[in-house]
Every structure is written in C-alpha cells, then in structure tokens.
Amino acid sequence: MAETDEKASPPVTLVDPIDMSKLDPSFRDDVKSMPNGEELTACFACSTCTAACPIANQWDFKPHQLIRMILLGMREEVLSSREIWECLTCFECQERCPQNVRVTDIFFDCKNLAAEEGYEVPENVLVLGKELVDKGQLYVVTADWEREDLDLEPEVPGLSVEEVEKILKKTRTGRLVGGE
Amino acid sequence: MPTYNLYMGCSVPANYPNYEAAMLRVAKAFDMELEYMEDVACCGSPNLRAFDYFGWLVVNARTIAIGEKNGNDIVTPCNGCFGSLKDVLYHLKHDDEMRKEVNDELKEEGLELKGTIKVRHFVEALYTDIGIDAIRAKVTNPLDGAEIAIHYGCHLLRPEDVTEFNPEVLKELIRVTGAKVTEYPLWKQCCGATVLPVNEPLAIRLARDKLNSIKTAGAEFITVVCPACGNQLDLQQLGMKESYGEEYDLPVLLYPQILGLAMGMSEDEVGLNMNRVPAQGILEHLVE
Amino acid sequence: MTSPVLVIGAGVAGMTAAIELADSGVKVVLVDRLRTIGGNALDLYKAFPTDDCFYCFEGNRTRPGIRKCFYRSAMTDQPNIDLYTDTTVEEISGEAGEFHAKLAVGPRYVDPKKCILCGKCMEHSQAFEMLSPQCQPQAVVYNPSKAEDGDKKAEEECPTEAINLNAEASEETVKVSDIIIATGYHEMKPVNVEEYGYGTHPNIVTQLELAKMLDPNGESAGTLLRPSDGEPVKRMMMVQCVGSRDERYYPYCSKICCVFALKHAVIATKERENIKVSVVYMDIRTYDRHEQYYREAREDGVEFVRGRVTRIEPRNDGSLDVIVYDSLLDKYLKSNIDLFVLSSALEPPEGASDLMSQLGLKSASGFVAPVDLVAENEVVVGKRIYACGTALGPAEVPESVNQARAVVSKILQSRK
Ligand SMILES: Cc1cc2nc3c(=O)[nH]c(=O)nc-3n(C[C@H](O)[C@H](O)[C@H](O)COP(=O)(O)OP(=O)(O)OC[C@H]3O[C@@H](n4cnc5c(N)ncnc54)[C@H](O)[C@@H]3O)c2cc1C
Ligand code: SF4
Ligand code: SF4
Ligand code: SF4
Ligand code: SF4
Q1: Residues on chain B touching A161 (C-beta within 8 angstroms)
Q2: pTM of the model
C-alpha cells in the first residue's frame, strides 16, 4: 500500500494515528536545553503530576500528557495549548514528581517558547506586559488617602518605574507589546 | 536590632496598605529595622516570567543586587515578590552562564548580582530572628482560641527547594497569638489568583473549593500573607455573594493584623476596616 | 568412595555448580544436550548488571576475546569434571544417594581434546563449524546434516587426527549420589502471538535474535542491519510482554525481559550510529537496582510508549508501519520502523516436563518448583535433587550463580 498521504480519499479505517514522522523531535531538545529542562527526559509517565494538579480535570491535555507531547515532539499542539497559560504555577506537580522533572518550570519555558515563536499569548497576559512596560508596575496606588489614614507615605517609597520600563523594552516584553 | 531591606513590590502598597501598616508596627515593636529599598522595580509576578523569562531575571536580579550593596537580607510581605526574587536568585545561582548574561545587563548601572544576601518572607524573618518566646512576651491581649485557617499561598511553599519555607512557622505564629490553627484538607491548594487574567471562572472555582474546604473544617477566620491570595479569598467572597448568592462569611486577615491585635494594637492601627469581608468579629475573641 | 554428582545442563548455573563442587573435591558428571556448553548466555554479548562482555576467553587468532572466564576455561581441564556434550539423560532410576542415570552420548566426530582449532577442516567442508567464538570445549564440531564431499579430505588433513567420521552414538550409565537440574530456559518463538507477525516478515525478530545481531563477533560485526535486505537499521521498535503476563500463553512475568530490552535499547542508541529506539510497554518492570537502566535509557533518548500495538503494515521498501495505541495520551501513533523486536516470554526448555515427571518433581508454570517455599530452601526440589538458575524460572546471571552456590553448599554440608 502506498503512503497514506492522499488527503482526498477517505481514511481506510477508523483509527487515525498521529504520524510520528511529521512531529518535530527538535522540540524535545529545545525544551531540554532551556534553563529548567534538564530533567525533562527523566519523565517516566507515571502521571503523579496530573494526580497532584488541582485543575487537570478541566484540561484536555493533562500535565503528564503535555510532558509526553514535548518528548514526542508535538511542538504545535503544546505551544498553542490553552493549558500552558492556564497553569496556576502552583508547583504542586513539580513538588511531587518522583523523577525531579521541573514540570511547572518546564511549562514556564513552554510559555516563553510560545511567545518567542509567535504562538498566541492570551490577551490579558499581554495587557499585564503592557502595564509593566508603560507604567513600570502592575498595580498603581489610587487611594492614597487610605495610606495616609494609616500613617503611610502616600506614594510607595522607593519604587522606580523608569528602570523596569527601560529593561523590559529591550527584552521580549517590548517586542510583544511594543513601547509607548 | 536586625536591619532589613524592605521590598514592598507594588501590590501591597496599592491594595493592602493595612497589611503594610500592621507589618511595620509589629516590626517596630520587635525592633526589626525595615528600611524601604530605594529605586527598586516591580517584580513582574509569575506573569512576567511566563512570557519574558530573561526580562524577569534582569528586573529581579537588579533588585537583589541593589540589596547586596548594604548586605542586609531582603524582606518582603508579598508571596509573589518573594517567589519571584527567590526563584530568580535560585535560578541564577544554578546557571552560571545566565548569571553572566544577566549581570552584563546590570553593568551599565554599576550593579552585579553576587548571591551574598538572602531573600526572605516577612513572617519567616519574624519567626527566625525574633523567635516565638520574644513574641509571646509581647502578646498582651491573646485570642481566646478562635479557629483560624492558614492559607499559605503557593509561592511561599513551593517549590520547596527554592522557597525553603517550613509550614510549621505560620502555625506557631498563629498559636502564639492564642488562636487555634484549623487544619483542612486543601491547605496546600492554590487560591486561583494567578489564573484570574486568563480564565476567571476557573479562578473562582478554585477560590470556592478552598473556601468550602475551610468552612467545612470549622474555621472562623482565614489568615494570609500575600496580597494576591488576600484579594482572591477576601474580595472574591463579595463577588461570589453578588453573582451566585454564596455566602461564606469568612473574614480574611493578613497575619500581622492578628498579631498586632493580640499585642494590643487598635483596630485602626492594623487597618481592620479595610478588610473586605467585615473582620471586626475578631475583636470579640480578644481577651482583655 | 562417594558417588559423583550429576549436573544436567551446562549453562551458567550448571557450570558454576560443577566447577565449585569439583574444586571442593567432589566428582561431577556434567551433561549438556548441545555440542557446546554455556547455554543461553553464549549469545548475550554484554550483560547487565556489570556491562561485562560475555566473551570470557583469552583471545587468539580465531576468537578476539576480552578476559578469561575462570569457569569455562576450567570446565575441560578440571580433573574432577566429566563433561558430556551432545548428551541427554535417557532415564533415571534408583533413589536418593544412589541414582542410576542412563546417558545417550552423541557420536564424537571431533575429539575436543585433540582439536587445536587450526581451521583447516572448515576450509574443506561446511559441516565443520565453530558454534561460537567462546564455545566450550574449544573445538570445532561436525554437523552430519551438512555432510559433503570435503569431509573426507578434512579428516585426512587434520594435523592432530582429531576427526573420526565413523564415530557412533553410545550409551553409558553413571551412578550418582545427587542430581542438580540446571536445564535453564528457552526464549519462546512467538509464532502464535499472531498480532506481532513473528515469522511472517524477516524484520520481526526476538530479543535473543537481536542480541546476536548486536554482537561484534556476529555476522555483521555488530552493525544493525535489516535481515530482509541488509540495509542499516535506523528505527527500531521493541514490544514488551509478548506471551508473558498473558493467560493465553504464559501467565507469569518473565522478569528479566524489561531489563535486557533496556540494555539493548541503550546499546543501540549509544553504541551504534543514528538509531532511534522506541519501547512499547504495559509496565516497565525493573527490579531492585536495575531501575538505573530505565532512567539511563530515557536520558539517552529512548522513546517509551505505554500502550499496545494496534497493527503492523509492511511496506514495499522492507520497512514496517506500526500503529501503536498510546494509552497515556489516548492517541494512536504511527511509526515507520526497520526492525521490530519482540520481548518474547522465557519458557521452560523442551523436555523439562519429562524430566520432572521421571523424578517426581513439582512444577510451577512448567519450571521446576521447590519442595517448600522457604527462601533458603528454594533450590531443594526433591530428595537429594536440586535445581538452580533459570530451571527454576526466569532469572539473571548473578541470581543463577547465587542459586548454584546455594546448591553446592547444601551438597557439601550433606557430605560432611
Ligand atoms: C535476550 C536476553 C538477554 C539477556 N541478558 C542478560 C544480561 O545482560 N545479564 C544477565 O545476567 N542475564 C541476562 N539474560 C539471562 C541469562 O541468559 C540467564 O540468566 C542465564 O543464561 C541462565 O543460565 P542457566 O544456566 O540457568 O540456563 P541456560 O543458559 O538456559 O542453560 C541451560 C543449559 O541446559 C541445557 N539443557 C537444557 N535441557 C537439557 C536436558 N534435558 N538435558 C541436557 N541439557 C539440557 C541447555 O542446552 C543449556 O546449555 C538474558 C536473557 C535473554 C533471553
Ligand atoms: S510526575 Fe514527573 S515522572 Fe511522573 S509523569 Fe509527571 S513529569 Fe513525568
Ligand atoms: S503548576 Fe500548573 S500543572 Fe502543575 S499542578 Fe499547578 S496548575 Fe497543575
Ligand atoms: S582440522 Fe582438526 S585441529 Fe584443525 S580445527 Fe579441524 S578438527 Fe580441529
Ligand atoms: S519483565 Fe517486563 S517484558 Fe518481561 S514479562 Fe515482565 S513486564 Fe513483561
């Protein structure tokens, strides 16, 4: 039988497998070479991470599956998943992984890769980035009378906003949300 | 008289001045010298780390490097700042190459991160440097065994190799005020604050889970040590009441407020009127 | 004078028992039905847990070797050992302390004591073979089924007159006091496990067959080539638990196939060029210290898929498309591979049940079973009848050797 590439003809069977030759094994290497990726390949798919995760039940891809998908080279699927952005960064998975896979940290790395490679970053996350670049802080004091009532200085002492703006304009934040 | 670099971040000053005030008063009573750090930046929270790892490293390394100039440990009341600073320090201590790159960015300002000081959460500094006995000596109006559930917050507890925080610390700090610690099954679980920008309904479900677990365990109050957790558990209760008619009636207090009251501070001094779910009920538990 | 001990089977276990008894002054009759001793271990190349090589003879011109194995080299020189290769035990009568074993000894076409392995006979006829570089005795053997005209010439020209083409089979009865069963195991030929297609395609092999392919002394000098056309293997897939843990074949876990699959996966990934290995498994069972192989394999980039094979589709170019259900992802994965390796069940060797019923021994899933289950007596299978090594069930070499030593100490104690 010829290769199953002809899209026109209907599939021969009901099984519709993922074609491993079309995946991207360099994805695994990319993540492994990132700052937290070293233990990635130690994963033995025990799914402890998923058991530990408070929100995995809400996800289509569970944490152990995401790690597996990275190992198999499913770059597209992982980097465009909503799961990496919904991760609470609560580190429950990472804390319990019996192979010291830095699961949460790896999801952080994936988000960075997604942002770098032009995958969609959730709107509200970009808004936070914009706040940081434009205002140099995430929260701005609005009710300074409250502070005064408590004998606190009206403004936050010592907070410098210019320096953050300057730094982040040069890094990926600037590239993602642009300066002012 | 221990001296610290006080790193406030942006959230506590903007959203929880009562936390700030109570902390400063408590610290003063124990001669902890908290000096506001000058010219430091917002930590960016885990959100910044998500899309700009390098930017996050540089911003926070800069803060730590500024702290290193006077050699005092950095103390912060916010889990987000604590997590970010401590995590950055951990990462840069374990990644020589990255540390070099980051330091190259700091050079312009004449700064360099060397890893000579520690990043600490205020409650841990209080516990370790002042000690339970010294604290007990200043508790003049102890609580009468009120049931208080502790919500630690993820970034205080985990990853443990980074945060190095022992959960017993907060328990002892609560008990020394005369209150009881209410154990509840979901004590480790996230409050949902971080997912708020991406999936609000999910964030609310997490808060609800947490509040249910706390309520069922019989707690009367919740204590937190982070503005984001505070927001999520306190403010969110008002929203849940409005949108879903759910009422938990669980006042959320920042830990220094509880200790302050037990040390005889007034309701105003710890800014009790700013708590979202009315928290005055705690006053009835104070033994004169 | 006390009677000798009969050791049936000269694999690692039987050899250990024989040599250690002999060294303690006990006479041993060591019988193996094959024409070389060594058993299954002969084909293994590197062995866990030490990663030593199984070539344990000092090198000479026909057999590049690595180190001297103190067991096997002694096997033919030890005066207390009477070695019978190409020999089966036809019948055992008598009772504990005084068994009579009737041996059927195959024709001695080549006298191993005379053969100097000059190789001349092999030039004349294919019927003369060296079974393995580390065969023991170190001698060629003659295979009458391959008889050809050159045989006579070989016989004439053998410089040591080691060859006798007229040799005949003989029978011999020995009187022995104790019997050690060290008949080992057999790797199942998984022809009946239809879904894996063994026997239908040359590129579908078993682990033991793979071990031979990986062997630097093998046909391809250790390079992995597709049996179908000799093209280099670039992608290899292994599947675990073929016929083991399966009520339709063998209900038990063969215990060591996970570990040797990992061993082979690591060798192929690390010591051969550009080979990608995947392992399809239900559980990876690496007992005690062997867990390190599993971690090492993952770190070396071996791909593990928990799930089972849906189907195999041979392509015209000699490769195979294998669809695997990945139960962790709940997805089907399709891979194109050159070599499909089956971790087939380790089963009792042929004839084991006859031997057991003759001696009235208990069986556990076809292997010899201990009389009672207390750990220190696991090698006692009858009255003055012992078993060791894989005759008792799948085991690695160190465990087989330990059991052989346990047998030896029991026998020595009983003789005090
Ligand atoms: C693919 C593979 C890889 C392996 N890799 C390793 C490894 O890396 N490390 C490790 O420790 N172990 C390994 N093993 C296991 C190893 O092969 C065994 O532990 C070891 O060979 C057992 O030795 P034995 O003496 O018990 O049995 P065997 O080696 O099976 O020897 C039994 C002997 O008895 C003879 N015999 C059988 N029945 C009769 C009879 N009725 N009469 C006369 N003679 C008889 C046989 O001809 C044979 O010579 C591997 C096994 C396999 C299949
Ligand atoms: S807990 Fe660790 S080893 Fe287990 S599946 Fe998750 S990442 Fe893999
Ligand atoms: S860090 Fe993310 S993936 Fe891990 S347990 Fe928390 S929410 Fe789940
Ligand atoms: S010719 Fe004789 S000595 Fe030489 S290998 Fe053959 S049998 Fe052995
Ligand atoms: S050792 Fe592994 S492959 Fe062998 S039967 Fe047991 S689980 Fe299956």
Answers
A1: 41-42
A2: 0.90
